[in-house]
Amino acid sequence: MELSYSHSQNQRVLKQRNMLVVTSLALAGLAAVLGVAASSRDREVVLQPVLHTPLTLSSAGVSREYLEAVTRDAAVLTLNRTPQSLDYWMKSVLEMVHPSAYGQVKADLMKIVDDQRGSSIAQFFTVESMKVDPEALTSEVTGVLHTMVGRQEVSATPKTFHYGWVYNGLSLKLVQFGMVEKVDPKKAVAS
């Protein structure tokens, strides 16, 4: 009798073990399927509205509206500076820069800071138009660059500035910016 009782107990424990193994394998398979689904799905973050419509970020790419908003802010930040705000200006611009372009951009900004420190020259930019290309991650801002010496405006020149971006995950970072040189049609024909 003891042998049959022991045998039935062992059979019950074996059944429980087998059910536990099957359940564990099913849960592991479900976790793997959900993991693959989650990693291949585009991520999206809804941002607070800064324009007339809410903006979203997606790992699938940059929306035209978001690139335009970031370009507008980058143009205001990079093109407006005074001798008193140079340190803040440089730190803020460098926070937008992608690590691959950090060294070059910092060197260029240091030249500007060294030239402008201690002077009474300030500049500000008024945006007139903007072109953005979310596919190429580029944007151009056209407007008037005003230069002030003390409290007197010494120049107001129409200029176009180019911004190049890189998008990784959900992070849009600046890799290049500068003034667009206009090509003189007379010189282009002579070449």
SSE layout and pairings?
Layout: H1 2-40, E1 44-47, E2 55-58, H2 64-79, H3 86-96, H4 102-116, E3 121-133, E4 138-149, E5 152-168, E6 171-179, H5 185-190
Antiparallel strand pairs: 1-2, 3-4, 4-5, 5-6
Report on this model:
The protein is an alpha+beta fold. The chain has a domain at about 60-185: VirB8 protein (Nuclear Transport Factor 2, Chain: A). Helix content is about 45%, strand content about 30%. It has 5 helices and 6 strands. The protein has helices at about 1-40, 65-80, 85-95, 100-115, 185-190; strands at about 45, 55-60, 120-135, 140-150, 150-170, 170-180. The strands form 2 sheets. It has a 4-stranded antiparallel beta sheet, with helices on one face. Strands 1-2 form a two-stranded antiparallel ribbon. Strand 1 and strand 2 form a beta hairpin. Helix 3 runs antiparallel to helix 4. The radius of gyration is 30 Å and the shape is elongated. It starts with a helix and ends with a helix. The mean pLDDT is about 85.
Overview in brief:
This protein has helices spanning 2-40, 64-79, 86-96, 102-116, 185-190, and strands at 44-47, 55-58, 121-133, 138-149, 152-168, 171-179. By secondary structure, it is an alpha+beta fold.
* Name of the CATH first level of the domain at 61-184: Alpha Beta
Count every beta strand, where a strand is a DSSP E run of 2 or more residues.
6
- Find the CATH topology of the domain at 61-184: Nuclear Transport Factor 2, Chain: A
Query: β content, as a range?
Result: 25-35%
| Large-scale geometry | elongated
Determine the CATH superfamily of the domain at 61-184.
Answer: VirB8 protein
Order of helices and strands: HEEHHHEEEEH
